[in-house]
Each structure stands twice: as C-alpha cells, then as structure tokens.
Amino acid sequence: MSKVGIIYNDAKAVACRITDELKDKLTADGWDVHVTIGAKGILGYPSLERPLCHTVIDQLVPPGFTEDMKFAIVLGGDGTVLAAFRQVAPSQIPLLTVNTGHMGFLTETFLNQLYPALEQVLAGKYEIEERTMLEVRLFRDEELLWEAISLNEMVLHREPMTSMCHFEIEIGRHAPVDIAADGIIISTPTGSTAYSLSAGGPVVTPGVPVLQLSPICPHSLASRALVFADTEPVTVFPAGPNRLVMVVDGNGGCYVLPDDKVRVKKSEYNARFIRLKPPEFFHILREKLGWGLPHIAKPTSVELP
Question: Quick one: what percent of the chain has pLDDT higher than 70?
C-alpha cells in the first residue's frame, strides 16, 4: 500500500475540515494516509528560564513520514510550508503546497483548486523543483547547543532593544570581515524574497547556487548585501558584550552569547516542491510582489472643463 502524508495548520478551521475530507478520500482510494500538524515543525522560542529550545534536526520527522512516502500535501500558508519542510526534508518527501493563508508566496495552488491538483499529482503529471536549505548550528566551547534546517533564512540580532551590534564573519577560506549593524541575515535564494528583501538585499532566482549575507540597517555605506557561492560555509562570531538572539525562518531560535559562534552552511537536504507546471519565478514575483508590472504613463495634458 502506497503512503501519502497530510501536514496542516490546525489553527485554521478550513484546513482541519479539508484534512478530514482528504484523509477519507485517500483512504477510500487505497492509500496509507499519515497526518501531522505544521506546528510540530516550529522550533520554539527561548526565554531567560529556558535559553535553548533544541530539537535535533532528524527528530522533527513525524512518525510514518519515511523515505518511501510518495508525497505529502500541505494545507496552510507560508509559515506552515516552512515548518513542513523542516519536518520532511530529512526524508526528502516532495510536498504539494496548498494555500489556505494570505500571501502564499511558497504555495503551488489554492484551496479551490485542490482536488484537480491532486488528480494531476496522482496521475504523475508534475515536476519536482528542488530548493536549497540551510543548516544552522550554535556552538559554545565547541559543544553543539542548538541546530535547525531552514528554507528561508537565519537572523542574528540584539534584543529587547534594537541597537547596533558588531559581527566578525568568516565566509569559506576568505579573510574575516567586520560588520556593524542592527543584525545580519544569511539567506537562501528562496529567502531572498523574505526578510532579506525588506533589508535591501537582492532577489535571487531559486536555481542559482548561492547564499547571501544582508546586514540589517548597517552603520556604514560600504556594508551592503553580499552574494557568495553556496559551497562556502559561514561562521559568525558576535564581536560585542551583549547577548544576541538567533531566529530561523521567523519562528524559533535561541540566545547567542558573546563567546559563542554560529555556523551556517548549505544543508545536505533539499526542499522538494511539487510543481503542476514548469516553475515561472518572474510570474510569482509579479503576482505576489508587483515586480515588473508595466508602467502606465500619466497624460501629458489635462483638459479643463
């Protein structure tokens, strides 16, 4: 019996209802259906009493979501998609992402198109697009304290008040650089349209084998976003006396102390998106972010009444 998975946002009533309907339909069609919630892929936030919220990368995989699973369906918004890939990436399960949220930048189809999309997938009429993920690890005296995989980005910043921080950053074999800024973002091409874009970083098309470093509000005209090969690992040393916070994909992280170091590199796992037609990234940029819309010229003269 072939296996299929469903990952859904249990905070949304429509996602819960559709999950029940899907499970009944697929079970009746002879599939072995496994269900989990996207919240199990959320990493958690630190607190003074609990400074680390650490789950080993491979332990986020839900029961039954093994490498022999044909595919899984995600019902939710972009946050659910990010959490879902953290859960299934070690098993390399392709995901059909269905938007029940708002922006839906990472989703492939809409809820009202779910069943035609599912029939297309069951018929094998789809492509798989692989996207780079990050492996993020925190070390203290060479002891691993925290780790996660990330589809979008890792952010390191000061809290609770935003203020300038200093970072010493080593990229591959290159000489270390010093950056003074409110924080830094290390992102994948997928994450280039998320926080990094808001911080002034460039948009990178998904197939380009690069990562990027974007300072947040840098205190120098020379500190600008840097794009580099994704074969280069990155090590970040906080170069100041203050405790920092590291956040991965906007939904979890840990504290970083002045003597800690953060290592970021391309993950051995890729995010595998099911595409119902050949991916068209510029169309998504135009539809979701308004990029490249045609310019409408203003009239050269106005006829007064």
Answer: 91
